[in-house]
């Protein structure tokens, strides 16, 4: 005889399923940041696939008219296994390494393949929960009243999943525990439907899937990272050697070589180039310097050169992590905030603003590349202030991305010099843009054969 579910138990199932569904969506976005970034295109694809699979899950669940409890049990069991493995950092890394790096499949196609092969089946199965539970609640309530009650609880569960996933579980326990928490909720859903007279096969498979999920997620997280937060995975690699044969510690953020500290507290070559420009060539002293994107706080690691540093980064955890594992003391103030909002709203003006914010390898958050944000940076500079941008792009500007970055910067800052660390035909490299705010009207004079004042202008400048 099948188990008889009370209305309270059924409504609890609906609430918890709503929690898992939206939490899974947030986890998918978070776990994919290290490999595909967090652009609007990536987010829209994830949300679109989720909604599409939910729609077909609703349809499939509504067509079921027998073995409803057993079907829900199987769905929750397979979802727990799928989330524990498919949402793990280890699986995602190997999946994209194979599809994109080895097979050469374009990144967006690899992303779409992952969503369709891994997350789509999970969401499809979870989507069946609402119509199946409505069939289990076919008591004497009208269809409208029943639908309202079920959708209310499912949406309430989604709200709790959205809030608790990011603000509580992921923030305080890390990403691995968030994955395991969702597996745990699915295990609870399985147990709410479990009849202890059933075969022990399902229970055994559940225990195996939970144990496997723990090893793949929590076990691997402890081995791979010093910490995971809602924004990033952090790893410090000792005894790293650069191409220049310098040795030191490397701070990896979301799989990207974020910062380097050598024996003399020197940073990556592009950091040393920025330091040379500001402190040795321009000889800046007693200046207020704002750095957008803290990284490993390496710009001031070797000293402030009698200047005042303020670092801004969206992740509040980066300061204690860097101080504990990477460089101590940190020379400069730290503010946890979104770089764009800070520059726009903060009343203080700076002598120098250095923009060096990346979400993963070569990926600058898109909202930090717009004309409007650059205008805010320009307005946050003092007269004759300097803005320095570290961009990773093709130095010959022969890609749409590189050319349009250059167009946007020059549209806002009329005076920019460009310092690529090296020239190459294809490979992106660090390009240092040094732009100045000019109080005088922009000079648009050009030299022609008819009117050529180059020689006069040269001697006047001398």
List keywords for this structure.
Rossmann fold, 16% strand, Growth Hormone, Chain: A, 53% helix, 11 strands, seven-stranded mixed sheet
Account of the 3D structure:
The chain is built from 15 helices and eleven strands. With about 450 residues, it is an alpha/beta fold. The chain folds into two domains: about 5-225, Growth Hormone, Chain: A, CATH 1.20.1250; about 265-435, Rossmann fold (3-Layer(aba) Sandwich). The mean pLDDT is about 90.
Strand-residue fraction? 15-25%
Number of strands: 11
Largest sheet: 7 strands, mixed
> CATH topology of the largest domain, what is it called?
Growth Hormone, Chain: A
Supply the helix-strand structural class.
alpha/beta
Which regions contain 5 or more consecutive residues with pLDDT less than 50? none
Rg, Å, rounded:
27 Å
Backbone shape? elongated
Helix content: 40-55%
Secondary-structure element string: HHHHHHHHHEEEEHEEHEHEHEHEEH
The first-level CATH class of the largest domain is given as Mainly Alpha
N→C terminal distance: 98 Å
Spatial order of the strands forming the largest sheet: 7-6-5-8-9-11-10
Number of domains: 2
Briefly summarize what is shown.
With 462 residues, the chain is of the alpha/beta class.
Spell out the blueprint of helices and strands.
Elements: H1 7-36, H2 40-62, H3 68-86, H4 89-102, H5 107-127, H6 129-136, H7 143-173, H8 175-192, H9 201-224, E1 227-228, E2 233-241, E3 247-253, E4 256-262, H10 269-281, E5 288-292, E6 308-313, H11 318-325, E7 333-336, H12 339-345, E8 350-355, H13 371-379, E9 381-393, H14 400-412, E10 415-420, E11 429-436, H15 454-461
Parallel strand pairs: 5-6, 5-8, 6-7, 8-9
Antiparallel strand pairs: 1-2, 2-3, 3-4, 9-11, 10-11
Helix pairs in contact: 1-2, 1-5, 1-6, 1-7, 1-8, 2-5, 2-6, 3-5, 3-8, 3-9, 4-5, 7-8, 8-9, 13-14
């Amino acid at each position: 005889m099948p188990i008889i579910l009370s209305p309270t138990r059924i409504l609890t199932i609906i609430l918890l399923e709503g929690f898992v569904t939206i939490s899974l969506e947030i986890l998918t976005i978070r776990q994919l940041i290290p490999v595909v970034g967090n652009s609007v295109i990536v987010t829209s694809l994830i949300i679109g696939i989720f909604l599409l699979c939910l729609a077909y899950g609703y349809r499939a669940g509504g067509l079921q008219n027998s073995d409803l409890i057993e079907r829900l049990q199987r769905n929750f069991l397979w979802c727990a296994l799928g989330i524990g493995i498919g949402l793990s950092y280890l699986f995602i890394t190997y999946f994209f390494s194979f599809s994109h790096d080895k097979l050469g499949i374009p990144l967006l196609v690899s992303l779409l393949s992952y969503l369709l092969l891994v997350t789509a089946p999970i969401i499809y199965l979870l989507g069946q929960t609402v119509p199946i539970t409505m069939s289990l609640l076919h008591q004497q309530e009208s269809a409208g009243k029943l639908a309202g009650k079920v959708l209310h609880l499912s949406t309430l569960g989604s709200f709790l999943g959205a809030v608790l996933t990011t603000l509580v579980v992921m923030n305080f326990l890390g990403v691995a525990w968030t994955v395991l928490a969702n597996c745990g909720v699915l295990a609870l859903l399985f147990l709410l439907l479990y009849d202890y007279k059933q075969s022990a096969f399902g229970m055994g498979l559940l225990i195996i899937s939970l144990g496997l999920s723990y090893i793949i997620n929590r076990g691997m997280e402890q081995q791979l990272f010093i910490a995971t937060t809602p924004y990033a995975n952090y790893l410090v690699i000792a005894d790293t050697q650069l191409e220049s044969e310098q040795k030191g510690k490397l701070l990896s953020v979301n799989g990207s070589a974020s910062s380097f500290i050598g024996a003399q507290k020197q940073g990556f070559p592009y950091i040393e180039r920025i330091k040379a420009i500001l402190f040795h060539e321009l000889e800046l002293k007693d200046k207020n310097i704002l750095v957008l994107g803290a990284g490993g706080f390496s710009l001031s690691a070797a000293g402030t050169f009698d200047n005042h540093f303020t670092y801004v980064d969206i992740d509040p955890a980066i300061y204690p992590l860097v101080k504990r594992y990477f460089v101590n003391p940190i020379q400069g103030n730290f503010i946890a905030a979104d770089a764009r909002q800070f520059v726009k709203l903060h009343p203080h003006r700076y002598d120098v603003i250095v923009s060096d914010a990346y979400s993963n390898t070569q990926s600058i958050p898109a909202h930090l590349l717009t004309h409007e944000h650059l205008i805010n940076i320009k307005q946050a500079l003092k007269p004759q202030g300097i803005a320095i941008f570290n961009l990773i792009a093709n130095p010959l500007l022969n890609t749409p991305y590189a050319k349009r970055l250059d167009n946007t910067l020059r549209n806002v800052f009329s005076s920019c010099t460009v310092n690529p660390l090296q020239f190459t035909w294809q490979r992106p490299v660090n390009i240092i843009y040094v732009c100045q705010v000019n109080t005088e009207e922009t000079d648009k004079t050009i030299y022609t054969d008819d009117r050529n004042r180059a020689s006069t202008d040269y001697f006047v400048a001398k």
